[in-house]
Specification:
alpha/beta, TIM Barrel, 8 strands, 15% strand, single chain, eight-stranded parallel beta barrel
Length: 278
């Protein structure tokens, strides 16, 4: 077998002989996409070109003040221009936005509202936001997330907080409490941050019903990202878990460059692996 086939087989063995699901008509709503964070140092046109070369057809677009693709302040300054930019994606379909806003106070919500209008205009229903940093009062975060959800609901957009080490969402139990206290809030599930984070033994099955979006790479107990097939992410089991709650979002590849590793090859292998499991 070639290198791709060997790794696909190695990863598939993690399914523990559970039957592949998502093969009926309903399951085809689940898409394989890729996050523009995979090429965070490139311009958006160059990033899109890479995804076309890798044969992706759907993308998860990052909107960050620190990024090179699209900034929240840029969206708020000229929503129409941002809409044109996000429609001109080399035939790649945007399925989600990952929004990271640095502005404080009312300016934060103004920029978020603009991002929601962008999402509605480009027919995207999923926006991911970070949860608060550790130490933030719980009630303060609840009020903040409630306001984001309220703003997004006007445009028919769903808000989910991202699984992330060093933030409130690093603890699965806290995620459940936040989602239960903020009606309509979901989770952008990134299993790596629970495998490699401070709560590796906590049950994440309880999170499945809150999942609006999924980010994937392979992860070990000590490293957030390792080569595909060398980590502990159980892709097949995860897909089965999501099927039980009728998940119909995207599985987004989120692999950054690693020293002495062929980045293109890793991304291609992940795409082939996920497509083989759907």
């Amino acid at each position: 077998m070639n290198d791709v086939a060997v790794l696909l087989r190695a990863c598939t063995l993690k399914i523990e002989h559970e039957p592949a699901v998502f093969r009926d008509g309903r399951s085809r709503a689940v898409l394989v996409s890729a996050s523009t964070e995979c090429f965070a140092d490139l311009s958006l046109p160059n990033t899109l070109e890479r995804f076309v070369d890798l044969e992706f057809s759907h993308i998860d677009l990052s909107i960050s003040e620190k990024g090179h693709h699209l900034r929240p302040s840029q969206v708020a300054e000229d929503v129409d221009q941002a809409i044109d930019l996000c429609r001109n994606t080399s035939r790649l379909n945007v399925v989600a936005y990952n929004v990271e806003i640095e502005a404080q106070g009312e300016e934060h919500y103004r920029q978020f509202d603009a991002c929601c209008r962008l999402a509605k205009a480009t027919k995207v229903v999923s926006i991911t936001v970070p949860s608060a940093e550790l130490g933030t009062p719980f009630n303060e975060e609840v009020e903040h997330l409630r306001r984001l959800v309220s703003i997004a609901s006007v445009e028919g957009v769903l808000v989910s907080m991202r699984s992330q080490i060093d933030r409130l969402s690093q603890d699965p139990d806290t995620v459940v409490v936040l989602c239960d206290n903020v009606k309509g809030l979901g989770l952008t599930f990134d299993p790596s941050h629970y495998i490699c984070g401070p709560y590796p033994k906590k049950n994440v099955d309880q999170l499945m019903k809150y999942v609006y979006h999924v980010l994937l790479r392979d992860t070990s107990d000590s490293e957030l990202q390792v080569r595909i097939g060398q980590g502990k992410v159980e892709y097949g089991r995860l897909i089965n878990q999501l099927s039980k709650v009728n998940y119909q979002g995207a599985l987004s590849v989120s692999i950054t460059e690693m020293p002495e590793v062929d980045h293109f090859a890793e991304m291609r292998k992940m795409r082939l692996l996920l497509e083989s499991l759907l």
